[in-house]
Write a structure and sequence with these properties.
- With 372 residues, the protein is an alpha/beta fold.
- The chain folds into 2 domains: 182 residues, 3-Layer(aba) Sandwich (Rossmann fold), CATH 3.40.50; 174 residues, Glycogen Phosphorylase B (Rossmann fold, 3-Layer(aba) Sandwich).
- The protein has 15 helices and 13 strands.
- Helix 3 runs parallel beside helix 4.
- It is globular, with a radius of gyration of 21 Å.
């Protein structure tokens, strides 16, 4: 590669603060050398987010194509316009499938086209999974390179094709345990004298919210000093709120929605809990560990998330009682929260050196000069 700036168009569904894919992108964005790599961002829809101003203030552009299925003509026209009016070296697709129109135009002009797998499934429902599996070969033909957040996510989407694992990273500094911040957030959320079990993720089928609530109902029966938080939004939000009311748990189970103070909320928690039906990686679990939290997650999480040694994996087939006992056991552990952060800081998931990692990868794939 010469010394000219690499121009990248990074694709994400939206810039929602609570989105794991968005946080993957932003963590790398903040750590690249922007003199070497200019990263613009294109999303499917506009969502209010502090990331928009942050990216624009750094000299990058943000494009909103609009939802493909609701406004297909407008979406396709804007996709064509973005590619036509900019000379990108790389398009890095973190959307998958709804990116077909823009990847179609990119194939004609952008030399390196990367597909990035963040999950082990292609849909939140069985029907969507089947439809997307049928469409996937069309998208694979438009890509030149394949990347994934983990080996299991890469194999699930790309099969025998060669792919590179680009690990999800976190900012261990902002997640470092701070007893003063913990007291502040716990006072603000009125949980002094209580233990807090927290879930971070979309309120969607893949995160298994109905099962999670059933487990926590049993936990709350056994202990009167526990409160449960779900942080995130999603299509099952209304259904979950109704279930909480029907179970009479409104005073002990709180849905906090999408929050931009997630690092503070981790400080206020005592245990992290997420019984996902499937996880390509599980960034929220890593963040929780960096905050020093013991974690109770499903065995659908890849084993590499257990960095601190304080992650308990349970099969979803296990009983509600078993899950409830595991959560109560985790609350009772005396975890070294500052020590856990040091472990994460020294791991490959720390932001240290991550900007160079992504830049090196971009330079490598560009130097090959591959086109398809």
């Amino acid at each position: 590669m010469d010394d000219r700036q690499i121009k990248v168009l990074m694709m994400v569904p939206n810039l929602r603060v609570s989105s794991g894919v968005t946080n993957f992108v932003m963590n790398y964005y903040r750590n690249v050398d922007h003199k070497k790599v200019k990263i613009d961002i294109v999303t499917l829809s506009y969502v209010e987010s502090p990331y928009i101003d942050e990216v624009k203030a750094n000299g990058s552009e943000v494009f909103f194509l609009g939802p493909l299925l609701e406004h297909p003509i407008k979406h396709i026209k804007l996709a064509k316009k973005v590619i036509k009016e900019h000379d990108y070296d790389i398009i890095h697709d973190n959307i998958i499938l709804k990116s077909l129109p823009i990847m179609k135009y990119a194939k004609k002009k952008v030399p390196v086209r990367i597909l990035h797998s963040h999950a082990i499934n292609l849909g939140e429902t069985g029907i969507k999974e089947k439809i997307n599996r049928l469409l996937l070969p069309l998208l694979l033909k438009k890509a030149t390179h394949f990347t994934a957040c983990s080996s299991v996510a890469g194999k699930a989407m790309f099969g025998d094709k060669e792919f590179t694992v680009i690990p999800n990273i976190i900012d261990t500094d902002v997640l470092k345990f701070d007893s003063v911040k913990r007291d502040e957030i716990r006072a603000k959320e009125n949980v002094k004298g209580k233990y807090v079990v927290g879930t971070v993720g979309r309120v969607a089928e893949a995160k298994n919210p109905v099962f999670a609530l059933n487990v926590m109902e049993e936990v709350l029966k056994r202990r009167s000093d526990i409160e449960y938080w779900w942080i995130g939004s999603g299509p099952l939000e209304g259904q979950l709120k109704n279930s909480i009311e029907e179970k009479g748990l409104s005073d002990r189970v709180r849905m906090l929605g999408s929050r931009d103070d997630l690092n503070y909320l981790y400080q206020g928690m005592d245990t992290f809990f997420l019984p996902s039906k499937g996880e390509g990686f599980g960034l929220a679990c890593i963040e929780a560990e960096a905050s020093g939290l013991p974690c109770v997650v499903s065995s659908n999480f890849p084993s590499e998330v257990n960095i601190t040694g304080d992650v308990t994996f349970l099969p979803l087939e296990d009983s509600i009682d078993s899950w409830a006992s595991a959560i109560i056991d985790a609350i009772g552990r005396n975890t070294d929260r500052e020590g856990a952060n040091r472990i994460l800081r020294d791991s490959s998931y720390s932001k240290a050196g991550s900007g160079n990692m992504l830049t090196d990868y971009y330079e490598k794939v560009l130097s090959r000069g591959e086109k398809k």
